[in-house]
Amino acid sequence: MKKIISGMLICTVLLNSFSVIASGEELVKTETTGETGLVTQATSETTTNSTEDTSSVTEENTSERDSSTSSTKEESLDSSTNSTTEEHSSVSETNTTDSKTEASQSSEVEKKTIDQDEADYQEAAREGTNHKKGTYAMKNGLSSRVARATVANVYANDPNLPGKNFIDVSSWNGDISVAEYQKIKSYGVTGVSVKLTEGTWYVNPYAAGQIRNAKAAGLKVSAYHYSMYVSAATAQDEARYFAQAAANSGLDKNTIMFNDAEDPTLTNNGRNAHANSVAFNQQLKALGYKNDALYVGKWWLTNGYIDTSAFGRDRVWVAQYPYTPDSSMQWNNDHGAWQWSSQMYFPGLANYEGRPFDISMTYSNFLNMGNSSGPDLSKYYTTNPGRVVVMKDETFYNNADFTSKGAAVKKNTLVEVQGIEYSSTGYPRLVTPQGYLTARKDIVLAAIS
Q: What range(s) does the DUF5776 domain occupy (predicted)?
């Protein structure tokens, strides 16, 4: 019996011991999985220690993570700051580079423009061109031949025409004798504008004779320069060239001096035709030619290439050709003069149908060609009479202007005449072996052979 009881006790103890062990293992597993459960004291302590250890580890890990995160943020911030700085630096460098590039490109463009201007100017000089006034004035790019195909011929004896105040001539008109100028004058023309120069390379070889004979015929003379400048500097050079030619041709500083601004070279490649034209005229003034003026086509004014108010509109001569001009027309009367045809013919001139002239009318007193003073040529011999009888005591002179006296000549003396020359003011003189003698018909009489 005792053996049975003793065996039962042993079994009970073993079972309880097994249960505690099993329960401890289960709780450990529960703690490990994080699930909530009942714990024994021993296990609780173990669990507490485990939790503290876990917490410590967690805190350490968290601290490390925080530290790592903080470090990462700092690194990220530093990286971002560095990146931003680098970007700003890069942008700054890029902007600086772009600015330098733009400045360089601008400088290159400016240099190319200057080089192109110089090349164009040198090319024009090599060509040695001799343009006729109005070649481009009627319309940009139109040649005078094209213009002639679209503009009617006009004849000086037609009464139904705009005013015929003055003509302009160049080498294309060739030699014009005093008698021919007189015939032109008989149609009411009172002045002539003579082309002197072009660019800095051309002087009209006929200019001296055209000026001399026009003065001799009693016409008022002005001069013009066909401009080819590409800059203010070349404009000033051309003005000096023009002024020197005027002086060489015997034109005084009161002469009206026209800047003929019409060639496309003046506006090609965006050139400032207005500023350069102003520079030309200002240079003329600086040289003492105060009566500077401007010739320009209406097309240029319409397109704004030149502002004529800068020159004084009463000093501006505008070209515009109507297809059928008539006496009622007064185009461009807000300026000083109007060139209305390049196809004016003067009946009575030799081969007149093959000799067209440019014709203009004036509006302003400044450009009025009607104030010419000269002799009444009907009272003088203008062709060689061969021999003359002196009707009263007279004097021979050593020059055509009668500023230097020569020998005396008695009344009724028969004098041989070699030719006719004119004074600088337009008076005819008889050229004789003894010197110059008056050509007045009331003082000398043509001898009958």
A: 380-444
Structure tokens at 238: 């051309």
- Residues 254-309 pLDDT 10s: 999 999 999 999 998 899 999 999 999 999 999 999 999 999 999 999 999 999 99
Backbone angles phi, psi at 233, to 5 degrees: -65, -45
> With DSSP H G I counted as helix, E B as strand and the rest as coil, what are the percentages for the chain, rounded to 5?
45, 20, 35
Phi and psi (nearest 5°) for 115? -60, -40
Beta strand 316-319 with 292-297 is parallel
Grade residue 421 by pLDDT with cuts at 50, 70 and 90.
confident
Rounded average pLDDT over 327-335: 94
Rounded average pLDDT over 416-431? 84
Rounded to whole angstroms, the Cα distance separating 338 from 220 reads: 17
Which residues lie across from 390 on neighbouring strands?
444
Start-end of H helices in 128-218: 144-150, 178-185, 207-216
Q: What fold characterizes domain 130-362?
A: TIM Barrel (3.20.20)
What's the CA gap between 411 and 282, in Å, rounded?
A: 56
With residue 192 as reference, give the H or E element that holds it: strand 191-198
**Where is mean pLDDT largest: 50-64, 128-142, 393-407?**
393-407
Q: Which of 129, 141, 131, 156 is nearest to 341 (CA)?
A: 156
Joined together, the tokens standing for residue 378 give 């009907």
Burial category of 389 from C-beta neighbours within 10 Å (exposed 0-12, middle 13-18, buried 19 and up): middle
Q: What is the Cα 309 distance to its own chain's centre? A: 17
Token code pair at residue 208: 């001296």
pTM for the whole thing? Answer: 0.60
* CATH class of the domain defined by 377-446: mainly beta
305 against 125, higher pLDDT: 305
What single-letter DSSP state applies at residue 268?
G
Question: Which three-class secondary structure state does DSSP give residue 7?
Answer: helix
Question: Domain limits of the chain?
Answer: 80-127, 130-362, 377-446
